[in-house]
Structure formats: C-alpha cells, structure tokens
Design brief:
The complex is a heterodimer of chains A (569) and B (80). With 569 residues, chain A is of the alpha/beta class. Chain A is built from 18 helices and 28 strands. In chain A, the strands form six sheets. Chain A has a nine-stranded mixed beta sheet, with helices on both faces. In chain A, helix 4 (99-109) packs across helix 5 (118-125) and helix 6 (194-207) packs across helix 7 (225-238). Chain A is globular. The termini of chain A are far apart. Chain B is an all-alpha fold. Chain B has helices spanning 4-18, 32-36, 40-54, 69-77. In chain B, helix 1 packs across helix 4 (69-77). Chain B is globular and about 25 Å long. Chain B starts with a helix and ends with a helix. The chains are: A alpha/beta (569), B mainly alpha (80). The A-B interface holds A 32, 71, 96, 98, 117, 119-120, 246-251, 271, 274, 476, 504-507, 539 and B 21, 33-39, 41, 44-45, 47-48, 57, 59-62, 64-65.
Amino acid sequence: MLDLRQYTCLGAALRDALDRFSSEVCLIEAERDREKVRLTYSDFKEIALPLARALEDADYDAGDRAAIIMTNQSKWLISAYAIFYCGGVLVPLDYKLTAAEHLQLLAHSKAKVLIVEYHLWRAIMESPNFQKIATKIVLVTEAPLGVELAGAFRWEDFKRKGAPDFVMRQKDDVACIVYSSGTGGRPKGCVLTHENYLEQCRALTAWYPFWPGVRYLSILPTNHAIDFMVGFIGPFVCGACVVHLRTLRPEFVRDAFVRYRITYVSLVPMIVKNLERGLRAKFDELPSWQRAFLNAMIATNRLLTRKRPNVKLSRMLLPNVHRGFGGEVLALITGGAFMEPSTMQFFYDLGIPVANGYGLTEAGTALTLNDLKPFRADTVGKPLPGVELRILNPDADGVGEVAVRSKTVMSHYLDDPELTLETIVDGWLLTGDLGRFERGGHLQLLGRKKNMIVTPGGKNIYPEDIETVFDGLPVKECTVFAANYVWAKKELGRESLVLVLRLEQNQKFDGKLLEDISARNRRLPDFKRVGGYLIWEKDFPRTASMKIKRQALAEEIGKSANREAIVGL
Amino acid sequence: MRTADQTLDEILTLAAAHFKMPREKLSPDADFFKALGIDSLQTLDLLTRLENHFHVELPDYELQGVTDFRTLAGKIQGRL
C-alpha cells in the first residue's frame, strides 16, 4: 500500500494510487447477476479527470463544497475523486433521506455542486421546496435522454478535454462534511479534515490490510463512514478492488460472494444475525449423521483457532460453509449497533471472524476494533493505533462516558460552535456512550449516557446491557428503556425499566408470552429486572444502518402513551 | 395484458398465500409491512416472488418508500 505518512490530502494519495496500481481492477459494478462495469485504476482515472476538468471550468474551486446523493456505484467514487482532485470538500448525503431532508442538508451545507442519481433528483424536483435550492451546478447520473432536468446536467455528458489542475490540500483542510444526524431541526455536520481520514486509513489497514487481489463487497451506503473508508479510501490506497451490487436482494448478495470471491464485507449486525438464522436453518435440514459430523468439525475448528484465526485450516475443516461464502472471505466487518456475542461466536467457530468495532461519525470510522488476538465476542475490541480512550467519571464498576482523543476526531460541527464546545472539551471528544475497559484493554460498551437507571442500592443499570436477556423473544422486536428516559421525571428514586414490545401481525399477547418474559426477567439479578412491559403498535424507527432510533422511539412513546400503560411484571 | 386492478388483485392473493394470511384481511391501501407483519428483509423476499410471477424486474430504487399494495401494483403495472 501507499505510505500515507507522505501525504497531506486524500486527493494526492488517490492520485498516486491510480498510477501505481494502474493495471489492477479497482471497481466492479453488477446489476443483480449482470456485470455492468469493470474498471482498472487506469480506466477510473480516464473517466474521472475529464469530470474534474469540467468542474474546474464551471468555476468549482478549492474549498467549494460538493454533495453526492447516490446509491453505491462506480460513479459515486469517480465523482468523489474528481471533487478531491479539484481541492473540493465532499458532502456525502444519505440517499435514504427524503427529498425535503436532502434539500434541508443541501441548504445547510451550502453545497455549490450536487451529484445525484436521476430517481433521487426526480424526487427532489417534485418537492414543494425545490424552488429554494441554491446549488449552482447539478449533475444527474443515469437520466434518460430527453427528460426534464430543471437546469441540471447529465453526469455522463459533463466532461471536458484537457488535463485538469490538481489542487493540493493540507492536512488540516476540510475533506468532508458528514451529517451524523439532525435532519429534525439541528443538523450535525461533522467537519472532517484530510488528516482525519489519512490517520484513520493508516490505523485500519494496519490491522485489516488490503492488497491487490482483495475484493471488498460494498453494501453499506458509501455515504456512511464505514463504507467510505473500507469501501473506497482503504482499498484504493492499497490497490484492492471494490465490488458494487446495485441491489440488496439477499439472493444476489449471496451470489456475489461466490461470483466475485469476496474477501471482506461490512454488514450491520441485523444482517449478520439474519445470515446466522439462514445458516442455522440449513444446518437443521441436514440428516442427523451429517449434522453430527458438521458439529464435530465446528468444535474442532473452535478448539484449533481459539488463540487466533487460521482461515486455511477452517476452509479445510468446513469446506462447504466456506464455499457458500465464495471461499475467500477473511472477515465480516461490523459495527454501528449492538452485536450479539453469540452471533459473533457462531461465525468465528465456522472460521469466519466478525471484526466488531465501535466508532462514531465525529471521530472517523472506528475507534476500537477486534484484533482477533485472540477473538473476543463480548467487547468492541481494542483502541486502534493512535486512538486514546478515557472513561470519564467511572463508577464503582469502572463504567463512565467514553471520551476520545485522536487525530481522527473531527475538527468541529459545521456552523455550530456551541455544540462543538459541548462535544469537544479540552481536546477530548465526549461520545455520550458508556463503557468500561475489560481485561486485555478491550472496550465494553454498556449503553448511552442518559438512558439508564440508578437503583436504590446505588447500582447503575443500562437497558442495553440487560436487553440481551430478551433476545430471541418471539415478538417482532423489543427494546428496554429507562422509564424516566421515556417519561422525563425531575426526581430521583423509584426508577424502573420498561420492556417495549412490538408484536407480530395478528399476534396476541398471551399467557405463554408473559411466562417467557417473566422467566427471562427472573434470570437477571433482582436489581436489574424490568419492572413492566408496554405493547407498542408501530415498528421501531431505525437509522440507515438499522440501529433503533432510541431517542426518537422514546419521544414517540412518551407523547403517545401514558406511564400508566406499563403493565407490571 | 392485465389491467391495473387485475395486477393489484394478483399481488394481494400472492402476498396472502406467501405469508399465510387470509386474503380478505389485505386491502389495497394497506401498509404491507403492517398488514403482513413483515420486516424489510422479508419484503425483499416477497418482491422477488412478485417479479418472478409477473416477469418484471424492479430496481431497488423504484421501491424506496413504497409501503402499500396499490403503489406497488402501479410500479409493477408500469413495467408489464
């Protein structure tokens, strides 16, 4: 890979990567089972530079902001590179937001350029607030010929001959503005510098290296910090290949693993859990003697890889399982939500380690990651090189708010000095997450700062810590809240936890379910038990990465239901 | 060529059969996540079955934000 210490900006590193790995394949794009695009680094450069030249000719200058709203595809990365080549600032927006939210963030970011897919642009054009859009240049990808684009250009036609001028940026110049949340009223635009990304990339690739021949399946949205790093910057500076699949249909995702012999993929925990369910169902269908043999091989693999993974050995012991994943998978990368230890252990025992990590947009892609030396399913791993973590005001159990100091921590929140001052204190970023260090320097997360209760005995109880007891409860979804987090109370004492249940369609809350809940509750120490349950009639709101939006759910419940609706256990 | 009503009716029948629901409990304007009690991954499974039945291909983006049977039927009808 490139020695990133030599670079001051992403544009320069990517430019050198395109030359150094010119003959390697950098991008494959498939529409279901049909391959549409296959580019070498040299091809990529040939497409990107005329775009960069056209942007420069349209007065797109260094420091100007350019937003991208696209699903995962080759034009996302080509556009991003062209923006960096011109010295621009990239504003990757979540394509799953509504058109109104897109317009809100475009206005907040003051993006001069917007690069957007046609179907998303169509929705933006139809939005009531469309006339207020101030973005000067809009490039629309895949627009059918002859359609009305309201002054926008077709991306495919927006190119100029002649070499563009490469604009060098310094480490502390802004590379990206990434919105971590806040479309509800106070947009939180994390301003990240070139140094933030270069340092993050160095740290991540030190533990999980890419090299020419490695293929990363890009499924998480590229606007997300994880995919931007491990589905673009990381592979590119190492000469690896990114595979884009224009559908998330499970059957084509499974097919892509085999077709493209995928090495790494990032998945949200919900999808990993789904994969586990699918595999377990397949295992259960095996004749008893085959199942017994498989179990023996899994047990052998577990024993022989207890200190560290050994993929060659695992592939020999469990060839059919590995063939189903294409035979080349080294790890599933995950993060962004709580991952059940039993799921991670399940995959590890099959010889497919789950690299679980912890990060937040404000601090780059990842702060901690499982280094697999040895594998541990009960933590989010160790701090990456260059990341300092501190537990603020730890309680008797060593639990406190996680604070981070690192070259990967953002510069500030865009146009919000007040929030910046609240969040970065004396050089330490306050994450709002609660955790403690375990043996071996592993970080264990135990919840968010405010969604917690303190027992009469002085014990702090975190809903996320105890809700694993309810994993597998036969309901559609469930979660635990501190009742005072849902129905705010300005008094101490009499705090309790409530289990919120979303039942399956047509499911009745019956005695059997009640007994199941009660039995699980009884497994907890008495001071940790849930005080009651509440039946909730709507699906839980979730983020793009399928995390439950706890605050939004708590607010919704607090507004729509009374505390009296809690049924005591 | 099917009419839009026929397409809608077939979708409701297929969805009911696939998720073992009484057909009469599904209405055209019902939110299919709620009516069928399914999550986003199960929805993808349903869409694949509908595509196979109607011999059409619906890009993921076409279905973003689509939650009721009638709108889904319109998307499929547009590609028949």
